[in-house]
Amino acid sequence: MSLSYYSQDLHGPFETFSLGDFELEQGGKIRNLELAYATFGQLSTKKDNAILFPTWYSGSSKVLEQVYLGPGRALDPEKYFIILVNQIGNGLSTSPSNARPPYDAARFPAVSIGDDVRGQHKFITDKFGLSELALVLGFSMGAQQTYEWAIRYPDFVKRAAPIAGTAKGTPYTRALVDNFIEAITSDPAFDGGWYKEARDVHRGLRRHAGIFILAGHTPVFFDQGLWKKIGFSSLEDFVTGYAEAHFVPQDPNNLILLLTKWRDYDAGKSVCRDLAGALAQIKAKTFVIAIEEDGYFSRAAIAHEQSLIPNSALKTVSSSWGHLALFGADQAFYESIDTTLKELLGGS
Amino acid sequence: MSLSYYSQDLHGPFETFSLGDFELEQGGKIRNLELAYATFGQLSTKKDNAILFPTWYSGSSKVLEQVYLGPGRALDPEKYFIILVNQIGNGLSTSPSNARPPYDAARFPAVSIGDDVRGQHKFITDKFGLSELALVLGFSMGAQQTYEWAIRYPDFVKRAAPIAGTAKGTPYTRALVDNFIEAITSDPAFDGGWYKEARDVHRGLRRHAGIFILAGHTPVFFDQGLWKKIGFSSLEDFVTGYAEAHFVPQDPNNLILLLTKWRDYDAGKSVCRDLAGALAQIKAKTFVIAIEEDGYFSRAAIAHEQSLIPNSALKTVSSSWGHLALFGADQAFYESIDTTLKELLGGS
Predict the structure, then answer these.
(1) How many CA atoms does the CB half-sphere of B239 hold within 13 Å?
(2) Could you read off the pLDDT of B135-176 as tens digits, one per residue?
(3) How close is the nearest chain A Cα to the Cα of B336, in Å?
(4) Contacts with B183 from chain A: Cβ below 8 Å
(5) Domains with residue ranges and CATH for chain A
(6) What one-character-per-residue DSSP string does A227-287 give?
(7) Which residue, of A91, A123, A263, A298, has the greatest Cβ tally within 10 A?
(8) B116-137: average pLDDT
(9) In the 8-state DSSP scheme, what is residue A42?
(10) Which of A58, A323, A330, A336 is catalytic?
């Protein structure tokens, strides 16, 4: 089930880059870390037109491509060399579901956002010989990776667009993610991560899906039945056909790894600074983008962080779809993001 | 565990009124329905100063007394005869946890808000000989009961204050309450409601508590650590010492009964009308009170309903505590409610 879901058929075409054995910040080691990625467009001879776009929670490079890339858009493959990279643990890059025993499943080591970004840095320097990125952007957990890039490699990142995410987890986000984790791990079939088949844990995955959309969308979304705009007929149809359909085919250990990474991210850790000190290191021209109605990362927390970044501006976008507007179904939201990214890329 | 929690020690003093066998709207029958209640103040000789204040989800008459009653307040026992009544299934009135076998636990019949209000009507007419209420008010599920009162007995209710609740469930509220129900019933120890001891289901109750506070408070509440104002030191301390402490001693079947009642309430049902038709029947002077940041009942849904009530006004109160501001810890919220109720009671 897991293997067929995390496939080239559903998420490809993608390639993989091998980083060999990779030591992790929290002390573990991944044997032969492979990052799955897809590129679009041509790298210029000056190598100054590369854009890096890492994935969000429970998503792959495919959805980023489908929603945000295209001619005439901000992320235009005719102008830019766009690298979509799958974060560690998302099922395409090395993950609990595809690691070789005995390093698999519940024994997969703890990974942090810092590990992802160190791995991505090695990948794009070794593979493409890059020494700068015209833009790093990402939504949600992708915003976390964007912050980490801009803080860890300040001279490498020319522009940054962290969207609907924070550089440091807040108590609210921790409470939220703890509820997600509990929903999955409380399924007796989860068995401490040693389930036989991922789909045996479907009850926990469905429970998680229910909370995911509750906080991920807004009361207005539900009460106006905005699911009709993407082809669902009722609350039940939406819960099952959208939310459960998204999570039930996925691997529970993968999701727990991602959720733990999400919950515990703190941009200051890798540079041994507090949040303000870490954000002050950013040299990139930065547009911090918040969703007004975001039920995962609050606008207040995002705005506070933006105020600590030297060369930055806060851009707030409104959507009744809430945080999960990132899936691209709200055309007005999509247009706002695209316009904002064009403005950022158009600047010096 | 359940029996000691639902006790006079913790929730009293309260009295009970027996309604005998009581037929329910959905076809069941409660053998010897008893409503637990507490009264404050004196009924005037004209019997025109009675206020009815039913309970919210998972609360008893005790918390209403402690938070909202007192000399100089809107609900002043020196001026009014105040009846606090416990809804069916809350553990003090007849409930799954205290009904006699074979009508107990998972076999307790389905109850609706309409049943509560019919029972309360019989109780206060038989016991006190009332033919009018100066005010019916309630928060959350108490707002549902308030709406039902004002619609079912329009000449009886002179003033109504439904606070932070709706006359008809919305898809968002349904999604929310379904998550609450799933959190409890998914605990294997729940066993279809046939657990031996309520506390065996503590994992499900804790899970429920986690989602309850997540949506019940606001991101600002969490991120500013407002729990410090009520004596908790951290997120963990608050989750365990406040949310879990509230739910773990309660009876899972009681909570499921209340949640089902909450989820399925539709004010139009009992009068065979649609929502607009039902609300148009209200004769009471009505202040509909919404919490701006409410994560259980959205302001938009509440405002829409208010627009359908003839002699009504919408009052919006803001609180970073969100829906659960009703517990009274936010002094500014409390003062706003008190002032609004005084205005309503002061009018003709």
Answers:
(1) 18
(2) 999 999 999 999 999 999 999 999 999 999 999 999 999 999
(3) 24
(4) 183, 207
(5) 2-169+267-346 (3.40.50.1820), 174-258 (1.10.1740)
(6) GGGGT--SHHHHIIIIIIHHHTTS-HHHHHHHHHHHHH-BTTGGGT--HHHHHHT--SEEE
(7) A91
(8) 98
(9) -
(10) A323
